[in-house]
Amino acid sequence: MKELEFDKLKELLHEKFNWDPSTIEIKALSGGFSNLTFLVQTPTHRYALRRPPFGYQISSAHDMVRESNVLEALQRAGYSKSPKPVLLFEDETVLGSPFFMMEFVEGIVLRNKIPQGVQITESDFLNLSKHTLDTLLELHHLELNRSGLINLGKPEGYVNRQVLGWADRYSRAATEVIPEMEKTSEWLKLNIPDQENVGFIHNDFKYDNLVLDPNNITEIKALLDWEMATVGDPLMDLGTSLAYWAESDDPEILKMFNLTHLPGNFTRKEVISYYDLHSGLDLSNILFYYVFGLFKVGVIAQQIYKRYKLGQAADPRFAALIEVVKAAGKKAKNSIITENI
């Protein structure tokens, strides 16, 4: 990772909060493939700082101002599982880009393996599956108008815009011909549902964006990474989550984002049944949303892989992402043919 100089940041924090610069420690946090996150440690508190990735033209997906505004609106809406924003700085003179700070939520994050020293039973995973979906459902049922959440998106025509937008992103990011992704893109354009639902959606909802309580691994303390959150169709959110919700017989490369493939977790069909029971939405066309989720996962991986190929990102993990694209495309194609999720 490119090195950042933090002297100007420490001076800013001294100016804003009267923190002694000599007592502030800042270090990078490992984890996701998108925006960069740093831990800001003061003698009394810990904060998370978010900044766009290096070598990336700032777009809506990496807009720090918007992500900070999302967290502000979620506080007004009474959502209990979003970190509290602390500082937004829109000038690029301190860290080379806009950035924001929020409270650091202490807990456990499940990535591609169970953290050392953590014990999770099959019963724990069963309860975590339920609580994960409860957290998603709570988000989808938030009040939109008084909180101002409605101003963060344009729900009318959302599904159509998403399909066309992600198809265009794939065309611009492609580094080789992957027929399954091309065919999936065309199928999605031809099968856009007529009916749309409206709710606040996260757009990247999966285990590795959840902070779990160390004292009760099944309890969710916070949901992270709100950069793509908006007002749109909750079933598009569910479809993305289903795409990340790997099962034991899925390709190994698609298990790198979630531990849902371990015993005790809901299957994708059980996820759909639980959401269907508690959402009040019509899930008869859930295949479309699942296929869209797989396509979207493939496009995200393709975009990051292209940055790696162009030398704009040196993280060695990125080299394998082309295999994610291929696996997601193949799974999407097979789901369309078999109508099986």
TrEMBL record:
MF terms in GO: ATP binding; protein kinase activity
Protein kinase domain sequence ranges: 23-341
Source species, domain of life: Bacteria
UniProt KW keywords: Kinase, Transferase
Keyword set includes Repressor: no
InterPro entries (UniProt xref): ACAD10-like, ACAD10_11_N, Aminoglycoside_PTrfase, Kinase-like_dom_sf, Prot_kinase_dom, Ser/Thr_kinase_AS
Pfam families: APH
Protein name: Predicted kinase, aminoglycoside phosphotransferase (APT) family
Organism: Algoriphagus ornithinivorans
Lineage: Bacteria, Pseudomonadati, Bacteroidota, Cytophagia, Cytophagales
